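ok trying again, last paste got cut off:
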Amino acid sequence: MPIKKTTQTKKTLKKPVKKVIKVESKKPTKKEYGNGFGITGLVLGILSLVCITLLPPIGIILGIFGIVFSAVQQKRTPTGVGTAGLITSIIGLILSIVMTILLIFAFFAIKEFFIPRIGNLKEIFSGLPLNNTKNLSELKDLLSHLPMNLTQ
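nice, full thing came through this time. structure:
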């Protein structure tokens, strides 16, 4: 009898594959912060530049807030908008401070220049009784010698 070879096949058992699911935290990445603080800083910087001519003390306040918002943006995510906001806010702050100082000096200069002259005018016109027609005609004669004719 012929011998038959029997081959035994090994049954390989497949192991079940376990799927690993990674749970990620919901913390926003740097790209998810956006440009909100940078845009706010830029707008406040532009407003501080506009306020230089109108109200410099308000320009100082807007410049400070613009620097703060732009610095927060640059710390979180450095962007071009944040840099532009920082630059405009710093320029607006410096120019607003300069204009405020100039306005204070101008106020005191005007006060020192005009107050003594207003007092002299009060002294000149306080001694003139204008209800007397003789004094009124003398005043008209004095005014007629001026380059402009004010007696009309």
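cool. The two ends are 156 Å apart (CA to CA). The mean pLDDT is 78.
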